[in-house]
Amino acid sequence: MIAAVLAGGKARRFGEEKLFYKVSGKPLILHSIERVLQAEKIEEAVIVTSKDKQETFEKLGFRIITDELEIGPAGGVYTALHELGDAFVIAGDMPSVKPEFVDYIVEKFHELKPYVCVPKWENGYLEPLHAAYSKSFLEILKEQITKGRYMLNEAIKLSKPWYIKIETLPEEWQESFFNVNSKSDLKKIKGFSRV
Asked: Which of 67, 107, 131, 150 is the most exposed, having the fewest neighbouring CB atoms within 10 Å of its CB?
């Protein structure tokens, strides 16, 4: 399966382009990409970004697809599925991805064949940017986008997804969901160094 790494966000809380912010010697996004590529079920990582950032991300040497919609994560997922077919979707600011967890989600996705295989917390909160999506999900997403409804979680709930109950999984897998929103978050990355 291909991993679609979403990299179109504005990073307002961070104050600059966070995905190129150097963490332990390399851009933050490379930590996410390298970790997801360690999963046995992932063959390739593709970066999904906006037109204005395309050239910058091309320097990393990965295939780039452009999100023309620019409506947030829903647009990124739509673009990924449209261009790639089934995909494991992850945010570019998730440097602590657990490759075993990615494999677990992809295995469940292939075994059960839902539109979406998404981790869900006990309180109902979903982790849509650490999930496997079927190309068939495009129809539901397109319908929602046409109505001006850009909430990815809303479209997921309409698709009869397979929920992975997070609390039943190994506790260390929860680190996978950690994402960097501000510079203070960087200190939470294991082995973090600013150089």
From this structure: 107
Assigned domain for 192 exists: no
pLDDT of residue 194: 52
pLDDT at 133 over 60: yes
Instruction: Assess if residue 193 is contained within a domain.
Output: no
**H helix intervals, 28-165:** 28-37, 54-58, 73-84, 99-112, 137-146, 152-158
Number of folded domains in the chain? 1
Task: List all residues 6 or more positions away from 176 whose beta carbon is below 8 Å from its beta carbon.
Answer: 94, 96, 97, 98, 101, 102, 130
pTM summary value: 0.93
Q: Domain containing 124: what range?
A: 2-178
What average pLDDT does the segment 34-50 reach?
Answer: 97
Q: Is 30 a known ligand-binding residue?
A: no
Is 67 annotated in a binding site? The answer is yes
Residue 17 in this model has a pLDDT that exceeds 90: no
CATH number for the domain spanning 96: value is: 3.90.550.10
- Does residue 94 lie within any of the structural domains? yes
Please report whether residue 191 resides in a domain.
Answer: no
Q: Is 7 annotated as a binding residue?
A: yes
- Establish whether 18 is an annotated binding residue: yes
